[in-house]
């Protein structure tokens, strides 16, 4: 009995001294977009490092697209070809990074119905919105203390029966 107790005590002491090294790494913020070589353009680079990409709540400057929102609306109205289908209703959110040179990359797509429940849209709609967004070349270069910065951007497309109804924000 005494030997069993000593053996258990020894194992407990040994286990307390054993350090486990965590191999899990966490993103800085929920929603940070890491480079994914399988889907991202390998030429796109953030200028100041992934830990310095500004979130929406860090931005105090105005429009991030030359010509403001009306120019974005006009662009999509002229290039988007509706895919009429009464089941294609909800929101498609494209989230991406604009680097310090005004280049966009690391595009991510989120899709939901009008109640914000996950939904999958027809790829013809999603791919079209993604292609138009990727081809935009007029993103503003934002500055903080006269230094150009990298920042997150998003566009939310409101879709009703396959037609583009609005672009938010």
UniProtKB/TrEMBL annotation:
It comes from the Bacteria. This is TonB C-terminal domain-containing protein. It comes from Mangrovimonas spongiae.
